[in-house]
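queue> holo job accepted (FE2/S2 (inorganic) cluster)
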Amino acid sequence: MRMALRVNGQTHQIDCADDTPLLYILRNHLKLKGTKLGCGLEQCGACAVLVGGKVQLSCAALAADFLGQEIVTIEGVEALPLGQKVQAAFLDQTAAQCGYCTSGLVVAVTGLLSQDPQADQAKIKDGLKGHLCRCGSHPRVLRAVQQVVAQS
Ligand code: FES
Ligand code: FES
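queue> job finished
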């Protein structure tokens, strides 16, 4: 099928199979490699993007389900003022080791705080519970989120 997808403020014409997951379009067709493939089963959070400002896992969801919606990947998030604050806080708090989970977490935190800039600890933990980090950076991630909340 041929579809038009809105990604990071631009419309892209894509030719692909009907059942192509959104992540495959982002990485393979659009070469936006910041969004990662981890589990491929919606169980780790590495593939998170924003759709209409809300966090969406992209590894299993079909691209065709997002026609006409604004998709923002980590490459688009880093152009947003809030996304830049979140990235800076991750750096300040050294909230990553290998970094494989990090783009998904930065996307998720940006989505979470754009909806609720004063999110408390319980809400932050709940919002990030689907994001796994094999390197164990969660305490530092939480400190980074708290830093951004304190700045808002
Ligand atoms: S790769 Fe999508 S949730 Fe793990
Ligand atoms: S920093 Fe390595 S998986 Fe999270």
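queue> The chain is about 40% helix and 15% strand.
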